[in-house]
Design brief:
The chain is an alpha/beta fold. Helix content is 45%, strand content 10%. It is globular and about 60 Å long. The N and C termini lie far apart (82 Å). InterPro entries: AdhesinB, Bact_metal-bind_prot9, Lipoprotein_PsaA-like, ZnuA-like. This is Metal ABC transporter substrate-binding protein. It is found in: Cell envelope.
Amino acid sequence: MKQLFLTFGFLAAALPGLAATKVATLHPILADLARQVGGANVEVVEILKPGADIHHFEPAPKDLAEMRGTKLLLASGKGLESFLDKLRDSLGADVKLVEVGAKIPSIPFEEHHHEHAEKDGDEHDHHHHGAEDPHWWHSAENMKRAARVVADELSAIDPANASAYAAGAKAASKRFGELKSWAQKEIAKIGKKDRLLVTAHGAFGYFCKEYGFEPISLLGIGRSDDASSKHVAETIEEIREHGIKAIFPEDQANPKVLAEIARSTGVKIGEPLIADGTAKVAHTFETMLAHNVRSIVAALAPAAAPAK
């Protein structure tokens, strides 16, 4: 009996240290990142799940119930989740809400055309600045920064496992670097003059900056934005002028305007790209990047010569 008592006493003392830290996430890519950094020391609760629309999501009462007992809530930030202030009030002081993107350098959303601004002067309405592009997860370098942010936040609430979190962030960063190197080699197959990425929405600024593309978007950042007839006409002119090979829809938003442009120019429509990182088939950085790079290279790189 004494031995049994001692055994139970040991387990009672050990269990608090063995309990995983509960972390909630508002993006599937953040959920995967938390698992990579935290490993067995975290229990991840995905509030926004694959297939959801990040631009129109708001937590429901059932989501708030799922967050109970969490120590940390990871959000994308950069204005993507308009409901965060209200959510903070609902959660109270027991849950730390961290906007991961807040510690990642921003680029402005810039809806523009390749050379028209130079021809027509600054007053020509091709540039729309001011809005912050929230799609920071399209950059491997940003994912490395995010891994460090997550490791620091986990270490702050669970210092006993700080070294494990640091190691997890280091391993994740190494993997992101390898993925970037792979993407660079693939994209090198596309001639520099053909690195114009025409998409429906302005979601690929970080990708374009990292891999040397010129972004051309028909619409704004959100899916509710519309393209003016003037903007469509300018895009058609640019596709013809520069011999752009393909335009790209997105996995969850395929505006009719792309089909209109394809009919007018004869340009091909490429494989839909994953803009928001929430596709059911690809909702981690690795699977999203691999899909997008392969789709872009397939559409824009010269066709390989047939074997003789």
